[in-house]
Amino acid sequence: xxxxxxxxxxxxxWGDEGKGKVVDVLTPNYDVIARFQGxxxxxxxxxxxxxxxxxxxIPSGIFQGGKVNIIGNGVVxxxxxxxxxxxxxxxxxxxxxxxxxxxKKAHLIMPTHRILDRAYEAAKGKNKVGTTGKGIGxxxxxxxxxxxxxxxxxxxxFEAKYAAHxxxxxxxxxxxxxxxxxxxxxxxxxxxxxxxYLRQFPIVDSENEINDILRSGKSILCEGAQGTMLDVxxxxxxxxxxxNTVCAGACTGLGIGPNRIGRVFGIMKAYCTRVGxxxxxxxxxxxxxxxxxxxxxEYGAVxxxxxxCGWIDLVQLRYxxxxxxxxxxxxxxxxxxxxxxxxxxxxxxxxxxxxVTDRFPYEIDDVEPIYKELPGWNTDMTRFTKEEEFPQxxxxxxxxxxxxxxxxxxxxxxxxxxxxxxxxxx
Length: 426
Description:
The chain is of the alpha/beta class. 30% of the residues lie in helices and 20% in strands. It is built from 11 helices and 20 strands. A hairpin with a 7-residue loop joins strand 19 and strand 20. Helix 3 packs parallel to helix 5.
């Protein structure tokens, strides 16, 4: 029996951990890269050879040596945004048509899904989630309620299918008394062009393809979007995304049996950020938070929104390691903390009743973080090329994190470029 495994790479915090760069760094070790959930609300940033790229729906392995990249069934795809993204990559010299495969079972984000997204957010008032407005939630809602339009539907009788789904959405919007349809016709025309463009790519039964690849002994890296704390089941609900961002999402989002999961790479920042509304126990509202944001360029790759910044939360991270079965950690943006004289790490929460816990609770709205202080390293690490160059204070910080999280840190990023990556010795 073939024992080939898929490895899974995912974020452990509230997203924006740096997954795109890591996939790009790890891709040379794999034959296939497969994206298993999320939509164009993701923004995976890659920098190399003096160029910067932001990928929203396309897997981050697309730049490496003509390898197959698969958009899995767990992804929701907006044809117009996909077209814009893919044509931009083609213009920069990366032809995707031969190497990018798209699952028939991936659901399509319709123009009316975006209007529904805005309508739902407006209806929530001050309790709004803070979505990106890309129509992700309404698309997954249609999927779960068995009303979705899928990529495979564009291959036959598409116009009638699209019209029926659009009419249903319009009736829903009418029931909500929604009247803002400004620019809809233009958006819809571009979206339909995107559908035609989508037809140029291999549209496949991706679950069969992926398992055939495994049977042939080839290696696959599964790429997640967002982060564990945005998982619809295990995240800080209801301020979450609409899919399973955890490791189990690779099984349902690609059609892989759980016995096929091998290594699980968990990505984290050396501190913590969050975009949009929702609880964030270690958030900093002072000059330290502003400094982290400025040095780390903490602005959304897709939305441009300021990210909320705070110290690393080890209670939350240990929970993420547990629910994902993480086998090794990858720490990003270590260099952002290079000049801080003292580094803080949250090691426990004080709850509303005054009790203290080191376990992630059901609700984190009113928890107070309890910090451990560690000495900073006051060293510019961005030009380092090997682990031996790290200052002792940073080595001590890494060791502390490994012991608390009971998981080895195998890769450390010290800058945005592909070259600014330290692979640690086993």
